[in-house]
Specification:
This protein has nine helices and six strands; from the N terminus they run H-E-H-H-H-E-H-E-H-H-E-E-H-E-H. It is an alpha/beta fold. It has two domains: 38 residues; 198 residues, Glycosidases (TIM Barrel), CATH 3.20.20.80. Strand 2, helix 5 and strand 3 form a beta-alpha-beta unit.
Length: 240
């Protein structure tokens, strides 16, 4: 009788082990399938922050012309134009340590890449700084094995005209130089996000260029970009 009990117990334990293994394998299969079917998650990244320690002064996006980071706010943080102060403190978007930290956190969180807000290659307002910081960020993104894409703001062309940096007749020349730079330096990069083998270019708008102008900007590019904008503005501008 005791032997029978022992056999029953052993068989029951073996059965539980088998059931456990089956459950584990099923879970692995489900997780693998979920990874294959889940839509990739990207973050929209603003590379426009400047700190006094790194850049010599607090940038406008921390102060907004009103807040003073030299003053301390509640919980030991600095006064700044933010509802959610960064855990690492008020950082600089050109700080290598910050970029490495942020990219590694993205990697650990399962984020697949960044969509970087970008204003072109002109040295006007903070456009030059944003361009430099974007190039710096891309190095860390690629090192971490993540992807990146650009979100271009075509209203920067309007601001260049209003700021007497270019004339209205030079808008298309400037726009073509921007697209040519993207085509030469980023669109063909293995780390650049592509859909159906076409580099994805997002547009915050469009807010300035019209349909015929966008069509003209595509001419002559080695890599034909998939250009997407805000849903209610895509069709009038002839974007993808």
């Amino acid at each position: 009788m005791k032997r029978t009990n022992f056999r029953w117990i052993n068989n029951f334990q073996s059965m539980l082990t088998c059931v456990g293994m089956l459950c584990f394998l099923s879970l692995c299969s489900l997780l693998s399938a979920a990874e294959q079917t889940a839509a990739p998650v990207f973050v929209h990244y603003m590379p426009w922050y400047a700190s006094k320690v790194v850049s010599g002064q607090w940038g406008w996006h921390w102060t907004m012309g009103h807040f003073d980071p030299e003053k301390h706010a509640g919980k030991g943080g600095r006064e700044a134009a933010t509802h959610d102060p960064p855990v690492i403190g008020l950082y600089d978007s050109n700080d290598s340590d910050v970029l490495e930290c942020q990219v590694l956190l993205m990697k650990l969180a399962g984020i697949e890449g960044v969509i970087i807000d970008w204003y072109g290659i002109s040295d006007f307002r903070d456009y030059g700084m944003v361009h430099r910081n974007t190039q710096h960020l891309v190095k860390f993104v690629k090192r971490a094995g993540l992807k990146f894409a650009i979100c271009y703001e075509d209203q920067t062309l309007k601001h260049l005209v209003e700021g007497n940096q270019i004339s209205a007749s030079q808008v298309m020349t400037q726009g073509k130089s921007v697209m040519a730079w993207l085509d030469q330096h980023w669109f063909g990069d293995d780390a650049y996000l592509k859909i159906d083998n076409r580099p994805l270019l997002l547009v915050f708008g469009p807010q300035y260029l019209n349909k015929s102008q966008w069509n003209e900007l595509r001419v002559g590019l080695k890599h034909s970009p998939l250009i997407c904008g805000l849903p209610h503005l895509v069709q009038p501008a002839g974007l993808d």
